[in-house]
Amino acid sequence: MYQHFLQSKDWETFEQSLGHQTFRHSTPDFSYLAIKKPTKLGPYLFVPYGPSISTTQPEKCLKKALESLVSLAKDQKAIFIRLEPTYAFSASTLAHMGLTKTKDIDPAHTWRLDLSPAREDLILGFSHGTRLGHNQFPRRHLSVEVSHNPKDIAHLVRLQTALAKKKGITAYDQKYLENELRQPFASLYLVHLQDPDTQKDQIVAASLFFDDETNSTRYYMQSASDPTYKNLPTTVGLLCASIFDAKAKGLKTFDFWGIAPDDAPKDHPWAGFTRFKKSFGGAPLTYSGTYDLVLNKQKYTLYKALRKVNHKLRKI
Q1: Within a 13 Å sphere around the CA of 125, how many CA atoms are in the beta-carbon half?
Q2: For residue 312, what are the β-bridge partners?
Q3: Residues near 100 by Cβ (< 8 Å), separated by ≥ 6?
Q4: pLDDT at 169
């Protein structure tokens, strides 16, 4: 039974460090880590990339998991249960079980690279442009530093904040990201650009990675770069370094996290970085997406309405 990293004990420890109450249950048919999330109307239970389901009789096992979660939710007076099965159930199957599709919290589609080939073969799997960027990286006075110092998250936050203002989105909270980097599974990669004349050094790209030792997978998480240097291969070099480091560490898979689905329109907001991620080679992986099981319809309806209002206010 496959268990995603967001269902692991390491992630549970991180959630507990944020003050969240967690619940874990495991049987031969299913397992889950449920996180109690507060709202002003009452709590809900979130099961990120879960529950984990036995593939022998997936629908039957999911029903059993839902029964267990409903019992827990009632005990906790939860308004609803939010879940993200990694087994790719059809939308009709989940709807038949009483689940309501909501906006994906974690990506329903991801891109993964097998790290088992030799380094040279991995490079051959890159697109021409990505190979060119990899080769040019050191010649363009760029270098990579790996940090585990929470204070260095400030570089990522600075770059993300500039990007968020440009695109009208919300950047991650610095304290939250600092707490992530304190975890043993996290690493921060920083790209330095050194002026050859003045020797002045500046950080022009940063990315946060998580290592899942159980599934031998490295995840590409938060990332941002300085658009002033968009003509330099900053992110290409950063990702190449992370991929090769993961391989050297003995990890078997590199997960690029979210991509747009295959049938997405050309103007999909993720179209650009989907093409970029696919330029490293790899294959897609699809999950079910994010669904809600509503227990208190009146409060759930009000919760959704308030979320929409809050989203609009943030844009203003």
Answers
A1: 19
A2: none
A3: 291, 292, 293, 294
A4: 65
Exposed/middle/buried for residue 150 (C-beta within 10 Å: 0-12, 13-18, 19+) = middle
Q: Can you give the C-alpha Rg of the chain in angstroms?
A: 21
Q: How far apart are CA 113 and CA 21, in angstroms?
A: 34
Q: What is the mean pLDDT of the chain?
A: 94
Are the C-beta atoms of residues 181 and 17 closer than 8 Å to each other?
Answer: no
Task: Give the structural domain span for 30.
Answer: 5-108+287-315
Strand (E) positions, the chain?
A: 22-26, 30-37, 44-47, 52-53, 80-83, 100-101, 109-114, 142-147, 186-194, 201-212, 217-225, 253-258, 283-286, 291-294
| Cα gap 50→287, rounded to integer Å | 10
Output the six-digit token pair for 281. 């080679």
Identify the CATH number of the domain in which residue 46 sits.
Answer: 3.40.630.30
pLDDT at 164 over 80: no
How many alpha carbons lie under 13 Å from residue 201 in its C-beta half-sphere?
7
- 130 and 274 share one domain: yes
